[in-house]
Write a sequence for this structure.
């Protein structure tokens, strides 16, 4: 059963009339579509199977969305991420720095968080990369996930 939104969209599509304008290579408007367009839009004859029904062709499965191959872990990438986090932590702690010891305290906290974040990020990258390699060796992503409920 269509939702209200789908019903409204369908009604809107029926309300509006669309007009196709065909233009030839010289820029003149044509009354009828060109022959190339008509030939391309005609449905191709379907091959009939032994029971008289038309054969259905299967489309290739779309690539999985949102998944990409993780890169091997590197300390350089972990350091860049930690530096970005250090800047964010410094900015956030500097809002309260005026009341509790100044910007030196905020900078020290930012340095501590940054130094702790470097190995943590490296370990997470290593874990993700090893999981990817194990999945790849098994020959796939394992059992398919159930679809998300909306």
């Amino acid at each position: 059963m269509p939702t209200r939104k789908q019903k409204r969209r369908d009604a809107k599509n029926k309300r509006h009339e669309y007009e196709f304008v065909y233009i030839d290579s010289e820029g003149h408007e044509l009354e009828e579509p060109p022959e190339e367009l008509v030939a391309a839009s005609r449905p191709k004859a379907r091959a009939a199977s032994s029971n008289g029904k038309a054969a259905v062709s299967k489309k290739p499965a779309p690539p999985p969305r949102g998944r990409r191959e993780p890169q091997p872990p590197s300390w350089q990438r972990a350091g860049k991420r930690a530096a970005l986090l250090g800047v964010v932590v410094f900015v956030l702690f500097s809002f309260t720095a005026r009341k509790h010891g100044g910007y030196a305290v905020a900078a020290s906290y930012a340095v501590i968080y940054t130094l702790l974040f470097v190995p943590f990020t490296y370990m997470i990258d290593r874990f993700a990369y090893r999981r990817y390699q194990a999945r790849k060796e098994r020959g796939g992503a394992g059992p398919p996930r159930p679809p998300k409920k909306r």
